[in-house]
Amino acid sequence: MIDTVTYRHPEALASPQWLADHLDNPSVRVVDARFNIRATAEGALEAVAERDAYGEAHIPGAVFVDVMADLADPDDPVVVLPPDRFEALMGHLGIGDDSTVVVYDDKGGTWAARLWWALRYYGHEAVKLLDGGFTRWQAEGRPTEQQVPEPSPAVFTARVRPELRVDADQVTAAIGCEDISIVDALPEVFFTGVARLYPGHRAGHIATAHNVPAPAHVDPATQTLLPATELARLWEPVGLEPEHRVITYCGGGVFGAFALFALYVMGHENAALYDASWMEWGADPNRPVETGPRASMHDRDQPTEPRRQ
User: Fold this and answer.
1) Which residue in the list 13, 250, 263, 273 is annotated as catalytic?
2) CATH number for the 10-161 domain, one of 3.40.1350.10, 3.90.550.10, 2.40.160.20, 3.40.250.10?
3) What confidence score (pLDDT) does residue 294 get?
4) Is 177 a catalytic residue?
């Protein structure tokens, strides 16, 4: 039984009203991070940044970021930009050390959270997700524009917080640890191995992982974050305790970042992102992989034995 709980960090969410009240504040920088996954004519999945949608209409003053391409290290695309390049990108976007950043998408924040995490990883705490995103903003009849802003360059100083990120070796060491939970934030169809996320990668999930899909945190009708009590119920199978460490991952560090966001809002900060996620793990035949629903929250009452690959 879960008692009624409240958000421990409600300030991580910006309501549309809060943002509307602060749009003219020069210290507030708004970032459009809309992204989509589409099926190609051949039936494959294609990742697409919504630059065209941004050009048609966006929140006044918002700049655009491709959370996959712009935030990826050109020399090692499975991980986030290194400090110097991240500083340059933020400065170009007009995001400085004194900025309050509000990031949004139209998928409940599940894509925008990649930038939320990256900013916090580089020591910038003043970052929020727009609750309900562009979907709610438009539904409330709030203003949009087509004009692309030209922000003044800013100075951003990266201060790495290594506790917010782990690599493959650290994940491997966490497998089987009673005080560490590995959480897969992808939809269940990829977790169980019924479908392959990447055609050239193995199917399944990291051995012993739980499944808490990122989209499950969001009300599908309003695109807002679920109430705290429902979030706590969603995470109950993971067995969160204050001293319990959580490592999240997904396909490329996006949905996993949103899982971290949900944990942060709930007040569980002993958590880190496996940044390279399945892009790295699923391509390495030496890393242990399981298929099946054993650790999935959907089948926790009658677990089945997973298959190792």
Assistant:
1) 250
2) 3.40.250.10
3) 55
4) no
